[in-house]
Design a protein that fits this description.
Helix content: 25-40%
Strand order of the largest sheet: 3-2-1-4-5
Order of helices and strands: EHEHHEHHEHEEEE
Number of domains: 2
Largest sheet: 5 strands, parallel
CATH superfamily of the largest domain: 5'-nuclease
Distance between the termini: 30 Å
Strand content: 15-25%
CATH architecture of the largest domain: 3-Layer(aba) Sandwich
Number of helices: 6
Structural class: alpha/beta
Shape: elongated
Length: 158
């Protein structure tokens, strides 16, 4: 049986009512708007589950996101839903519109179902480029050579 791991967007866009949903506690914290809270209550009453992600899987997500350069784009909630999807393995389908989340998920072989936007087309490894001296780096905010800000760039497609 497929388990659909729900990002906050599932409740914002009122999707997934006909699916077996699992989400994480931090998604509950993000559903502050009245209609979103109501959508969350409906989901819980119809069988959705809230589960804390295993710290071991959370650590795997952080490691992979650091490797892809997506770590700066991911919130704690993003890391939690990715960890929960990884924890469920082949039975999981991650429902999200977040492109950084989709990028990390695709690198880990997690199935993705977009909610209201299109799916990412390419897997990307991100890097940084200095806006001053144009040197390239893997991460950081400021150039260690000239002190200028670093800009996110696509390093390569996979």
């Amino acid at each position: 049986m497929k388990i659909y791991i729900a990002d906050t967007g599932v409740f914002i866009n009122r999707k997934g009512r006909d699916r077996q949903l699992v989400t994480v506690p931090s998604v509950i914290d993000e559903t502050k708007a009245k209609y979103t809270s109501m959508e969350m209550l409906i989901a819980l009453e119809t069988g959705a589950k809230i589960e804390q992600p295993d710290p071991v899987f959370r650590e795997k997500i952080v490691d992979k996101a650091e490797g892809t350069g997506d770590i700066e784009e991911l919130s704690g909630t993003d890391i939690d839903v990715l960890a929960k999807a990884l924890e469920y393995g082949k039975n999981a389908v991650l429902m999200t519109d977040d492109y950084a989340v989709q990028n990390v998920a695709s690198m880990l072989g997690i199935k993705i179902e977009p909610i209201s936007q299109s799916r990412i087309k390419d897997k990307i490894i991100w890097g940084k480029k200095c806006t001053g001296c144009m040197k390239r780096f893997d991460n950081g905010e400021e150039c260690p050579i000239c002190g200028s800000p670093l800009k996110k760039i696509r390093k390569r497609k996979i």
